[in-house]
Design brief:
The structure holds two protein chains of two kinds. Chain A is α/β, with parallel strands linked by helices. Chain A has a single domain, classed as P-loop containing nucleotide triphosphate hydrolases (Rossmann fold, 3-Layer(aba) Sandwich), CATH 3.40.50.300. Helix content of chain A is about 35%, strand content about 30%. Chain A is built from seven helices and ten strands. Chain A has a six-stranded mixed beta sheet with strand order 6-7-8-3-9-10, sandwiched between helices. A four-stranded antiparallel beta sheet of chain A has the order 2-1-4-5, covered by helices on one side. In chain A, a hairpin with a 2-residue loop joins strand 1 and strand 2. In chain A, helix 3 packs parallel to helix 5. Chain B is about 55% helix and about 20% strand. In chain B, the strands form two sheets. A six-stranded mixed beta barrel of chain B has the order 3-4-9-6-8-7. In chain B, strands 2-10 form a two-stranded antiparallel ribbon. Chain B has two domains: about 180 residues, no CATH class; about 170 residues, no CATH class. The chains are: A alpha/beta, B alpha+beta. Chains A and B meet through helix 2 and helix 3 of A and helix 1, helix 10, helix 11 and helix 13 of B.
Chain lengths: ~230, ~400
């Protein structure tokens, strides 16, 4: 599903440059649920951004679903992002003047679906996250957990190959965090490949595999016994 | 191609961010309103000019005589030059097809009496061509014709005001008017686009006046219009050569400026035209300055909007929005706001012009209004302006990196 080979990335800081990723090798198979951990500055967010095609590596290979991701034009990156990836953010990143349904339907608009199809699909995914009755509410009228679920529904709407979650529970309390994790586990059970960046151990333990980053290299990469979030909810 | 979904996105953005929309639109409303008002005022000024100078023919030449200031051909200075029928015929023959209309003028002041009403008026004794030279409009009856000249009939054509002054309740046409003791039949009543005084004049055949007042063939002034097919330069050359011939005819020194005076309207209308053109250019510059200020204003606000929407644009890009779609949204929003605001500004400006129109007439601004050509021009300008105003911000927006935008919490 995802293959990364000797990935390097540095950022210029004044005259010198900061070497953030120093040769990352990572392979993620279909149906995996991977937690990427590391303290701040370890390069985990940079890695996620490169995987999410929001940023480009200096050197190294990145193959996603058999497609080499290299020298992308903005236009092509947009198409790939839309087709392959679903993003879930710490701060939800919903568009505040659009209601829940419109937010979920937005990636479908960029897929070029007509209005009726978009509405139907968006409703389907809203139902999936259990928020169909909130379809016409604005984000400001929703709780944090509800917002994140809307965001997940939006990430799912375009039926991506890979779900990328950047600290998805970072802004939520423990109970809500576990609810979200339970839902992500459910999606994974259904076969979705999920990558979660987190610095919380309990969240990482709810994944099937933990990759620890430290100073730009992979320090540890191990399979774990998944803790089911449902037992805490 | 009309993309209904794109427009739905734009309308939602405009509708859900009303304050922002109104703010950005206001600049344009104001700019276009000023533009409209300025243009209207300019048109008004132009109207005033054309009216002030448009009453009489613009291709007129007036020939007057005076006293010589220089001795010439053995004749002393201080000699009075008197035009007569011979002069009139000479000019008529010499000018040939360069001439359009020609008339003599004799000025007299008379006391006119009809029944118990008496008043003083100026009489102009003229040829039939005078009607076209002065652009006299006949309300009733007819003007003086060639037969009146030949038969020296005692007829007059009176101005509208004369009729109002003397013929209180009755109509003047066909009645006899007593001018300093002699009865004249009123054959016509005229109006004139010039001022009221023009309508307090009494016209009579030139030959009648010559016979009644002195039994001579003197003429006070000769008015003519040159062939309108001639351009300004030709017209001026024509009047110059005419002046030279007349000076020769009357043995006047070439350098004598007083004895024979030829005034050519071509020279005047040329400077009036230059003035109007200059005025138009100034207004155009001011108008475009205002427009540009409006464009810069909306451009600034659009840049601010892009900044405010950075995160939204980042989200859209993360969800698969292409740079092109981001440009379209920002650009079309800008153009849309500009056009709507522009139309509002145009309407407000037109209303202001309409309402203040009567007040403006005191300041030599008549019928201040914008023509439909201006409105079409302004609309096209607005679309272009909205495009220019939106382009830079849109470009900026499309270059936003989603990663930067999303970090912007």
């Amino acid at each position: 599903m995802l293959k990364i080979n000797q990935l390097h990335k540095s950022y210029p800081i004044g005259d010198s440059s900061l070497h953030v990723l120093k040769g990352i090798d990572l392979e993620v198979n279909s149906g995996e649920m991977v937690a990427i951990m590391g303290s701040s500055g370890s390069g985990k967010s940079t890695l996620l951004n490169i995987i999410g095609m929001l940023d480009e590596a200096d050197s190294g290979d990145y193959i996603l679903d058999g497609v080499p991701i290299k020298n992308l034009t903005e236009k092509k990156a947009a198409v790939y992002r839309n087709k392959f990836l679903g993003f879930i953010f710490q701060s939800f990143n919903l568009i505040n003047y659009k209601n829940a349904l419109e937010n979920v339907a937005l990636p479908l608009y960029y897929q070029g679906l007509n209005r009726k199809e978009r509405q139907e699909k968006a409703k389907f995914h809203l139902q999936k996250v259990g928020l169909l009755e909130w379809a016409h509410h604005l984000p400001s009228e929703l709780s944090g957990g509800q917002k994140q679920r809307i965001a997940i529904a939006r990430a799912l709407a375009a039926d991506p190959k890979l779900l990328l979650a950047d600290e998805p529970t970072g802004a939520l309390d423990t109970k809500t965090s576990y609810e979200i994790m339970e839902f992500l586990q459910q999606l994974n059970d259904e076969g979705k490949t999920i990558l979660i960046v987190t610095h919380e151990e309990d969240i990482a333990e709810m994944c099937k595999r933990v990759v620890r980053l430290r100073d730009g290299i992979i320090e540890e990469d191990k399979k774990v016994n998944q803790v089911r979030a449902s037992q805490y909810v | 191609m009309f993309d209904i979904d794109l427009w739905r996105e734009i309308f939602q953005s405009i509708n859900k961010n009303r304050l922002r929309t109104i703010m950005s639109g206001f600049t344009v409303v104001f700019a276009i309103m000023l533009f409209t008002i300025l243009f209207g005022i300019a048109n008004g000024l132009q109207n005033t000019f054309t009216e002030a100078f448009g009453d009489d023919a613009t291709n007129a030449i007036y020939i007057n005589s005076g006293t010589t200031t220089k001795a010439s051909n053995g004749l002393q200075a201080g000699r009075r030059i008197q035009f007569d029928n011979e002069t009139f015929n000479y000019i008529k023959d010499e000018s040939g097809n360069k001439l359009e209309f020609i008339t003599a003028r004799i000025y007299k002041n008379v006391t006119a009496t009809f029944r118990n009403e008496t008043s003083s008026y100026s009489v102009r004794a003229v040829h039939p061509d005078h009607q076209f030279l002065e652009k006299t409009l006949m309300n009733e009856g007819r003007y003086i014709n060639q037969r009146d000249i030949e038969e020296k009939t005692k007829v007059v054509v009176i101005g509208k005001k004369v009729e109002e002054d003397l013929f209180l309740t009755t109509t003047a046409l066909g009645k006899y008017l007593n001018l300093s003791g002699i009865q004249y039949k009123i054959i016509g009543i005229f109006s004139d686009e010039g001022n009221d005084d023009e309508e307090r004049i009494i016209y009579m055949p030139v030959s009648t006046a010559q016979q009644v007042y002195g039994n001579n063939d003197y003429i006070d002034q000769i008015n003519m219009t040159y062939n309108p097919e001639m351009n300004y330069d030709q017209a001026i050359a024509f009047s110059n050569s005419l002046t030279k011939q007349l000076k020769k005819l009357f043995s006047v020194a070439v350098s004598d400026q007083r004895a024979i005076r030829v005034r050519n309207r071509a020279a005047e209308s040329q400077s009036v035209n230059a003035l109007t053109t200059g005025l138009g250019i100034i207004i155009l510059v001011i108008g475009f300055g205002t427009l540009i200020a409006g464009v810069v204003g909306i451009s600034n606000i659009m840049i601010f909007i892009v900044k405010e929407r950075t995160k939204e644009i980042g989200i859209r890009k993360a969800l698969g929005a292409s740079p092109k779609s981001i440009v379209s949204i920002i650009l079309l929003e800008s153009i849309f706001i500009t056009i709507i605001a522009g139309i509002i500004g145009l309407l407000v400006g037109m209303v202001v012009l309409r309402v203040s129109g009567p007040m403006l007439e005191e300041y030599f601004i008549k019928d201040a209004a914008v023509s439909s050509a201006h409105i079409i021009g302004a609309t096209i300008t607005l679309i272009v302006a909205g495009g220019i105003a939106g382009y830079l911000p849109a470009k900026k927006a499309s270059q936003i990196k989603p990663i930067v935008a999303l970090r912007n919490d």
